[in-house]
Design brief:
The protein is mostly beta strands and 239 residues long. It has a single domain, classed as Neuraminidase (6 Propeller). The chain contains one helix and 21 strands. A five-stranded mixed beta sheet has the order 1-18-17-16-15. Strands 2-21-20-19 form a four-stranded antiparallel beta sheet, with no helix packed on it.
Length: 239
């Protein structure tokens, strides 16, 4: 009987995960950033970070989408950014050269390393997240293959997770409160919430967004932040 109940629960979970959930659009604004990509919370959770893959700049945004500050980085073709509590700074990722760069709070470069991973130069690294509990980075590779690359604190690949649920991958965010990952695909116009093994628990359609390139989630206030590359728009959704 216990086995039957367990299988029934598992089937119900898979059925719920296969159904698209609804999001409520709270706000959308245009941001004065050329080709913005990626989103991450600042260390104090009071603002958001994004990068431009056009000019190598990192930007700080208010939670309403207003540009607060900007900083020149040493990277180019930037597609991902995340705060790093242990370094008390930031890390970024470049798509074509497949490189991670880590900085202190004043944007002084501390370390960088190219990550050996095959694929097209223009369909490479698209997003970056960090789990402070296991001190691992997670990079999404856009396509061919759509993968999540797990990297340790020495910037060495420890595992590659295949993710075949979308046409491409655009960004990843780790929620340390709920221990969940949030993944966005711009070609599929979808957001996925997964467990630590990247099993889908919820998925959301985002037809309002032209080209979603960044995601961050606030599980306390039940908000999802999205930034769009093509039209430089910033969205807030409720879930």
């Amino acid at each position: 009987m216990k086995k039957i109940i367990f299988i029934s629960i598992l089937l119900c979970q898979q059925l719920l995960a296969s159904e698209k959930q609804n999001l409520k659009l709270i706000k959308s604004v245009t941001v004065k950033i050329p080709e913005p990509s990626a989103l991450s919370f600042s260390m104090d959770q009071e603002s958001l970070l994004t990068v431009s893959d056009q000019n190598g700049m990192a930007y700080s945004l208010s939670l309403e989408g207003a540009v607060l500050t900007q900083h020149q980085t040493s990277g180019s073709d930037l597609e991902g950014i995340v705060t790093h509590d242990d370094l008390k700074g930031f890390c970024t990722v470049s798509e074509r050269i497949r490189e991670i760069q880590c900085y202190d709070q004043k944007w002084k470069l501390l370390k960088s390393k190219k990550i050996p991973f095959p694929g097209s130069s223009n369909a490479g690294f698209e997003g970056l997240s960090y789990n402070p509990l296991n001190r691992h980075f997670y990079i999404v590779n856009e396509k061919s293959p759509t993968s999540i690359i797990e990297i340790n604190d020495e910037l060495e690949i420890v595992k590659t997770h295949q993710f075949n649920h979308s046409k491409d991958l655009s960004d990843i965010y780790f929620d340390s409160i709920e221990q969940k990952f949030w993944i966005v695909s711009h070609e599929s116009n979808m957001i996925f919430q997964t467990d630590l093994s990247f099993n889908i628990q919820n998925k959301y359609s985002i037809p309002e967004v032209v080209q979603a390139e960044g995601i961050a989630a606030d599980s306390i206030n039940k908000k999802i932040y999205i930034i769009s590359d093509k039209d430089s728009k910033f969205f807030i959704f409720g879930y």
